[in-house]
Structure formats: structure tokens, C-alpha cells
Fold:
Amino acid sequence: MKITIRLIVSLVFVIALVAIVFSYNQVSNEEKRLIAELERRAIILAESLQESVKPLIESNSFSKLNRLVERFGNRERLKGVAVFDNHGSILSSTPDLAPKISQPFPQAVISITENRQISSFKNLSGSKIYLYTMPLHQDDKAIGSLAIFHDASYIDVRLKGIWKQNLFRFLALSILVVIITLLVVRWSITGPIAQFAEWMRELRMGKDRVNEPATPKRGDVLSPLISEVTHLAKSLAIARARAEEEARLRVQAESLWTANRLKEHMRVELGGKKLYLISNREPYMHVKDGRNIKCIVPAGGLVTALDPVMRICDGVWIAHGGGEADRVVVDGNDKLRVPPEEPAYTLKRIWLTKEEENGYYYGFSNEGLWPLCHITHTRPVFRLDDWVYYQKVNEKFAEILLKEIGGEESPLVLIQDYHLALLPLLIKEKRPDAKVAIFWHIPWPNPEAFGICPWQQEILIGMLGADIIGFHTQFHCNNFLDTVDRFLESKIDWEQFSVTRGGNTTMIKTFPISVSFDSALDRVSATQEKTLLRETILKEIGVHPKYLGVGVDRIDYTKGIPERFRAIERFLEKYPEYIGEFTFVELGAPSRIHIKRYRDLLAEVEEMADKINWRFQTKGWKPIVFLKRHHSHEEIDRFYKIADLCMVTSLHDGMNLVAKEFVACRADEDGVLVLSQFTGASRELKDAIIVNPYDIEGMADDIYFALTMEMIERSERMRRMRTVVKEHNIYGWAGNLITTLLRLRVPATSESNKE
Ligand code: ADQ
Structure:
């Protein structure tokens, strides 16, 4: 209350000050104006009279003079007129005035002797008078003077009126300001603070209100504070839920991998060692947003999977800085701590020239190796220039990594993906004591398909520099060993799944990647009001169907998006009762758009969505909502939570994390997953509706099957899938991979590494 009073008193004081200054100004201007007007009138009257008066004085015609003077006695605001001789004695005057005028009249005398007009204010018998005197001359000889007496009391009345009027204005304004201040303070400060305090009190007492907005609806002023406290509260609630979960697990003697368990495990296993993770794609990218810089998480499975691991293990993540504002935010060593809101590990950015990026990334990696490893009938393109850049950039990564490692003994290095296939050997040649793993996030094709690559041996030799090569599925491991068997001289142990070349042994092993299924987070999100969320989202996208499907993809030809749209079209043809009832939302992030194949695909997908919409749409409904942009994970999760079905229709996919994310999000144990048989995920998520994305007819029926599935079956399937994702989460992936790597015995000299 004190602050309100202080605010009101200060405001009223300022208003009073302004009102006084303005009123004073107004009053003095008005006074000047009125006096000037009086003077003007007096001068006009005096000048018009003097010509008539002068001959009468000269000829001593006093009776005529009296008659003339009397005529001016009763004009508006004119008190009277007097004519004096050259000694200041009255010759003639308006009858009322004569008794009140002293003789000789001083102002008349001065006017005559100094030969000038004089104006002044006088008090004449208690009333304020404006007096104007003028000397009268005849042939340069002073013959008397003329005095005009005006009533000036109305000036004071007028000026008082202005003060009074302004006082009322001031009072009215003050009352309004007080009322508005009270309301604004109540609505924007004290009200929200009270609501906020109540929210925090409930939180402290353990009520699950984390997902309810902490924002009192009118809390603009407080919003920065609220957003910070909401973060804090969320972390607290999650920590509390995790602690409860850990306690529960201890009681049940379960050995589930959780964030805390991985943290503890890594603390013991790493014994203070750092983890070095290298990938092409960076986990946080800085881009320009108007005049500001914003930080985004690039779309892609690798980042989704590894960021939670690095948050726990700390260490250094080395990656290409591809964001347009990336250079602005790093320190002198091209490093920064991330994530921005809760820094937990170091990101070191590597800069590539345009030519390097084109050759190594777009060319060799994405026009060569990517289609080579995915069987999707898109031809790989291998160019010598691209290969040269691929080698150069791998060397660049190696050089920077080795510098970063410095003298650290037996450093632990996790290399990610097909962009860096040559890196394991480049590191091992220089640091044989390093423990190196490379994880291949995409499929590995059979030897015939891989044989297309003109630099097949160099790639295999580069990879075999690692101590561990990880794939998502056993099938990919088998393909890899077959390929090595076909193209390299080496000893393959089919029992142990290892390759030995020149004394160096590489273990080939499956580590099916996953997402951070967090039961704690999960329980928190279960409180979300699904119906409300659904209504909000439908309002946002402008359709209100009964059933909602969702697809989440980088727009890539391996993801089978055109096939999915075709299946939706066919579904509406076959089951027309769903026209107006079913909408599919595609959250598609444009990807690799410098490559023509990707630009063409984007255009194709857009055109298909338009065509299907044009064909089926009705007023207020359309079958496909294509949201073509990058979305944050929070945005994507909202759609996962309300969708009746999620479609993953990849033509070929190492794992596919969208499928697992959808399952992890469904704390309500509802929703159906339609999953391509060509994904690694389909090996684990057997309770999804497994589809062949090339079979459009079959997929149309499967959409129908998903939408008509009994609630009980949906729940059972989802529950079983959730158990799979929960038990095989990303913490388990990291725990197993890093532990396996740490426990390997590696030779201490570089000689053993050479053929
Ligand atoms: P990706 O080919 O990128 O990953 P995927 O596993 O599906 O494919 O992961 C995609 C990730 O990007 C998901 O986390 C998803 O949420 C996110 N994403 C998709 N669309 C998005 C959008 N519109 N906006 C923002 N984010 C979006 C590669 C392999 C996969 C393998 C992963 C992990 O191709 O087979 O599962 O690595 O190993």
C-alpha cells in the first residue's frame, strides 16, 4: 500500500506543480491582454474627444464642455471623463467623478508638465480604476489635459475566474489519476504479485502446477521475473519428481537408466576426464532475428539425442558453426557454454569456408554418402572435388580436436556420423592412447550398394581407426562386416563382431539410440489439460476436425512425405465419411535446401498438399495443414500430446527419433503410432502399426485402422511402447556406449595402429 500512496502523492504533486505554472502563465497573459484592450479603448476615446474639447477650452465655452463631457458619463465600463486646465484643476467632468477627484489632479499635472500620455491604475473610492491622461495643446501651447476613467475591477474578477477554473480542473485530474493509479497498480502489480505468490506457495507445498502458466494474466511488468521463476520452479519440480522416481526405483531395485544415474555413473567411470564429442551439426545455432540474435536448436536426430547426454557428462562438443550469427557469440577460442539458459557444457565451433561446406557437407556427405546409405532410389553423386574437400575438412576437425585434447591421457572421443568417417584414423595416428568411437546414425547398406562409392576402401580404413563402430541395428552391423569382408584385407571375428587390421581391433556393436524418456518430466506433463491444449492448437491452425494426425520431419526424401500424403488422399477417397473429420498436420523443417533434390522435394510436397486440399477441402476444414518451418521441441511436443495418430513413413531410416518422441510424450497412454517397416525404430516399437510406405493402399487402410482402434487397444499398445522407450532411453545408450569404450584396452603407441 505504501508504494501506491507514494506513487499517488508524487503524481498529484507533479500535476499541482504543472497546474500552478500553467495557470500563472495563463493569468498573466490574460491580464496583459485585458490591460492592452483598456488602453486601446482609452486612447481611441481620448483622441476622438480632444478635437472637440480643445476649441471649447479656448473659447471658454464651459457649458458646452459640460454637455459634451456628460455625454460620456454612462458608457460600458467607462466611469467618466474629466477635462483639466493647465494647472490640473477641473474645468469639466462627469458629475459622479468631481467629488472624488483631488485638485490639482496629480496625474493631470504630470501629463501637462511632461507633455506625455500617462496610464495607471488607481483606487477611486474603493473601486479599481484605469486612468488615462493626455495633454491638450493649441498652437504648441499647453491648454490643459483630458482624463479618461475606466472601471478596471472586472479584470480582477476575470483573473480570479481563471484561477478557480484551473483549480477545478486540477481537482478533477487528480481524482482521475488517483483512480487510474489504483486500478493499474491493482491489475498490473499487486494483483499479479498476489496470484504469483499463491502459485509459488502451492508449488512449495508440492502441488503439480508447473505446467500451468505461472503468469497472472495481467502480469506484463512481472513477465521477465515470472519467466525466470517459472524456469526455476520447473527445475525444482523436475528435481523433486526425479528424486521421487529414483527413490521408487531403489525400492523396486530396478536398473533403469535415468539422467541422475548416468550422471553418477559418469562421475565414477570418467573420474574427472572430459568427454570430447565431434559432429558436423552443432547443438545450438545462433541466427539473426531482425536486429537481435536468437539461439535455436537445429532440427535433427543427432542433436536431439546427444544434447541431454552432454548436459550430464559435461565436456567439449566440437562442431561446425553454421549459424549466421555464430561468430558473434563465441569467445577468443571460438567457444561458448551451452545451453544458454542453463550452461552445462562447452561448444567449440569450427569455421568452414563456402567451398569447404559445399564440397564436404553438401557434396560428398549429402549428395554422396547420404543417398549411398539410404536405399531410396536417389542416385548418389560422387565428385573428386567433393572428396578432396571431405578429406580436408576431416583433417581440419582432427587438427582442432587434437589441439583441444592437448596432453590429456587416454582421452575419450565420440565421433558422430557419416560426415566424419575419416576422423577415427586421423586421431588414432596421432594419439593411439585415445579411446575413439564413431557412431553411424544412418543405415549401412549391403556391400553391392556400398561398392558404388569410388573411395570405399579409404572410408572403411578411416572408420576402422576407431575402437568401436556403433550402429542402430544388428542388420547394419552385419552389412558393415560384409562390406569390410568384401573390400578390405582384415581378420573378421564373426562371434565377437570385431575387425582386426594391422594389430588394431575395432568392435562393431549395436547401440540403438533413443530419446530422453524422463518419467519425472513425464509425470509433470501428465497434468496438462489435454482438451484445453487441443482447443488452443486447433484455433491456432484454423481447423476443427474430430481426428488429428501429425507428422514431424526434416524435409528429406528418405522420410517418405509424398508417400504419406498420397496415403492420406487415398484414405479420404476410400473412407469419405472422414472428409471434414480428419486433418493431418505436417511440421516440416526445410533441410539442405542448397541441394536441388531437396528444393525439388520441398516444392513437390507443397504442391501435393495444395492439390489434396483443393480437392477435398470444405468451408472451415482442410485435410492437410503443412507448417513449413523449424519448430522448437516444446512446440512439437504440444502436437504429439494431442494427436490421435503420428505417421512416420520413412523409406529408409537409421532409427527415427520422431517415433520415440511421440511415444515418450504420451503420458496419457493414448494415440496410435503408424511406423514404417524401414526404420530402425520398427525393430523396437512392435506395437506401432507397422506399414510399408510404398504400399499406398495398405497405408490408407492402416490410417482407418488407427482411427477406429478401440481405446483399450490403443492404451495397451501405447503402454507397451512406452515401456520400451523408457527402458531403452538415451541415457542407457550413452551409458552403454561410453562404458564399453572406457573399459576397452587400447595400445599406448602409434606403431601398433599401422598396417
Ligand atoms: P534425422 O534424419 O534427422 O536423424 P530423426 O531421427 O527423425 O531424423 O530426428 C529428427 C529430429 O528432428 C527429431 O528430434 C525431430 O523432433 C526434429 N524435427 C523434425 N522436424 C522438425 C521441425 N519441423 N522442426 C524442428 N525439429 C524437427 C538421423 C538419422 C535417424 C536417427 C537420428 C539419430 O537419419 O535415423 O534416428 O539421426 O541417430
Notes: Residues 299-302, 304-305, 441-442, 513, 552-554, 587-589, 630-631, 636, 653-658, 661 surround adenosine-5'-diphosphate-glucose (CB under 6 Å). The chain has 23 helices and 23 strands.
